[in-house]
Fold this protein.
Amino acid sequence: MTKEKTNIELQKAGRKRPFKLPENYFDDFAVKMDKLITDNKKVTNTFRLRPWMYGTAASLIAIVFLGQIYKTNYKNEKLAMEVQDTYILSQVNESSIIDYYLTAENDK
């Protein structure tokens, strides 16, 4: 039923065109468009950071900074343990160390 109405309405309308172009519209169309584009063109070469970019940059810097602190602390602790072990071993005489290894070997 709706198809019939549509067809009837289209048949009533005929081949009339509802819109008309002004005379010589496309003759100077390109010139008018170029003028409009150059008049409205704004040249901005500044780079603008978005607010979320500040947060992202701060987070990345914090991660790198905290990672560096952790790495430095780990190296310092490792170095302190090595120094402590060296100091303890320097306080023990050589014959005690040899006796320790010989008794440990005999216990196996």
Remarks:
- The two ends are 103 Å apart (CA to CA).
- The helical segments are 2-13, 29-40, 51-91, 94-107.
- The chain has four helices and no strands.
- The first helix runs from residue 2 to 13.
